[in-house]
Design goal:
Elements lengths: L1 H16 L11 E5 L5 E8 L2 E6 L1 H12 L12 E2 L2 E6 L4 E5 L1 H11 L31 H17 L5 H7 L8 H16 L4 E3 L1
Antiparallel strand pairs: 1-2, 2-3, 4-5, 5-6, 6-7
Helix pairs in contact: 3-6, 4-5, 4-6
Length: about 200
């Protein structure tokens, strides 16, 4: 696999040449520290894309270093990265991450539209007690169900922790989902579409 081969090569360069070890929490995140042990640069990678954050001089130094070993294109201020939309207010010192476009594409893919007017106050109906499928339950397509739950999990992980509890509950039924499970999964997607402009601000 070309992507895997390139990532291994890039990983080796970060570790050995750039002296930026991978973070223990995420092997696609590399950190550079100064002599005092303070973090001055962080590089997040996704196949052949690299997103930098750090002190201005450290960012400039890294750009020169990586250009000596790889053919690179600098796109400047990032606007999106792996499905996340990025916006910054430098004066206020804040950054916002959203997945509006990703959520809209999810709606198109699974045939779900945003509710008009007042939206749901919760991602799913918690008054309904979901249980494993019985012999009499009508089954949902397991491939479709797993696909939807995977997409929802990505949103929960990146920018929408408000759906994490719902995704955790629905993930219990991946092996043998029924129509009740699917109905609640689509309800979570409806909630996301209704609140698609919500994100995380740091």
């Amino acid at each position: 696999h070309a992507a895997k081969t390139f990532h291994d090569h890039l990983h080796k360069w970060f570790q050995e040449t750039a002296d930026m070890p991978a973070a223990t929490s995420d092997k696609c995140l590399y950190v550079r520290r100064n002599k005092q042990g303070e973090v001055i640069l962080v590089a997040a990678t996704w196949v052949d894309d690299v997103l930098l954050a750090g002190e201005p001089q450290a960012v400039q130094d890294f750009r020169k270093e990586i250009a000596q070993h790889f053919s690179v294109r600098d796109f400047g201020e990032p606007k999106d990265f792996v499905g996340c939309e990025i916006s910054r207010d430098i004066e206020k010192g804040i950054g916002t991450f959203k997945q509006t476009k990703y959520i809209e594409k999810m709606g198109e893919r699974y045939g779900v539209q945003a509710l008009q007017g007042y939206g749901p106050c919760a991602p799913m109906d918690y008054s309904i007690k979901l249980a494993p499928s019985s012999d009499t339950d009508q089954r949902a397509d397991p491939t479709d169900y797993r696909s939807i739950i995977g997409a929802l999990h990505y949103c929960a992980h990146c920018t929408r922790p408000d759906i994490s509890a719902s995704v955790s509950i629905l993930s219990k039924f991946l092996a043998d989902p029924n129509t009740a499970h699917m109905k609640q999964a689509l309800k979570v997607l409806e909630y996301l579409l209704w609140s698609k402009h919500i994100g995380l601000t740091y």
